[in-house]
Amino acid sequence: MEAKNFSFYVKATDETSQPWETGTAKHGVTSVSIPTEFDGPGTAYSPEDFYAFALGNCYVATFKLIALKSKFEFKNIDIKGVLTVDKNEVGFYMMKKIHFEITLWGVKDPEAAKRMFEKTSRSCMILNSTLTEKTYSYNVIE
Question: Could you state, in order of their start, the residue ranges of all structural domains in the chain?
C-alpha cells in the first residue's frame, strides 16, 4: 500500500487565554484551546480531546471495515472513554492511559463480537502508533 498524506493547519496568536483554529481544506475549521486542567480557558476542544477522539474514532472506523469484510452484522457501536494525562518517569506530561467502554448493539453472535473486538484492537493503526496504555471493557447487546 502506498503512503497516504493528510494535510491540516493550525493558526494561533501568542495569547494563551484565547482559542485558536485548526482544520483542513476539505472539512473546514474548528476552535481549540488550552484546557482548564492546564490553566487554560477551556472554551473549545483541547489537544487532549482531539487525541482521545482520534483513538476512539480509529477504533470505530477499523471495527466497521473489519465487520464489512467479515460480513459481521451489528446495528450500532458506541464508545465512551476516559483519557488519563499524567507525568512520566522523568516528569513530563504524557497521554498515560485511555480506557474504552465499548457497547455493540444488534449482535446475533456474541462470540463473533468478541473476536471482532480483539481483531480491531490489534489492527487499529492510530492505537498501534501510540505509547498510551489502552484498556477496554465490552458490552454486547443482542
Answer: 1-45, 47-141
Distance CA 93, CA 84 (A): 10
Cα–Cα nearest to 8, from 44, 54, 40: 54
The structure's pTM equals 0.93
Give me the CATH code for the 47-141 domain, please: 3.30.300.20
Query: What tens-digit pLDDT sequence spans the chain (142 residues)?
Result: 799 999 999 999 999 999 999 999 999 999 999 999 999 999 999 999 999 999 999 999 999 999 999 999 999 999 999 999 999 999 999 999 999 999 999 999 999 999 999 999 999 999 999 999 999 999 999 8
Task: Return the closest-CA partner of residue 10 out of 41, 26, 31.
Answer: 31
Do residues 79 and 56 lie in contact, with contact meaning Cβ atoms separated by under 8 Å? yes
Which positions ≥6 away from 103 have C-beta within 8 Å?
76, 77, 78, 79, 138, 139, 140, 141
CB atoms within 10 A of CB 60: 15
Q: What angle, rounded to 10 degrees, do the helices at 110-123 and 47-70 form?
A: 130
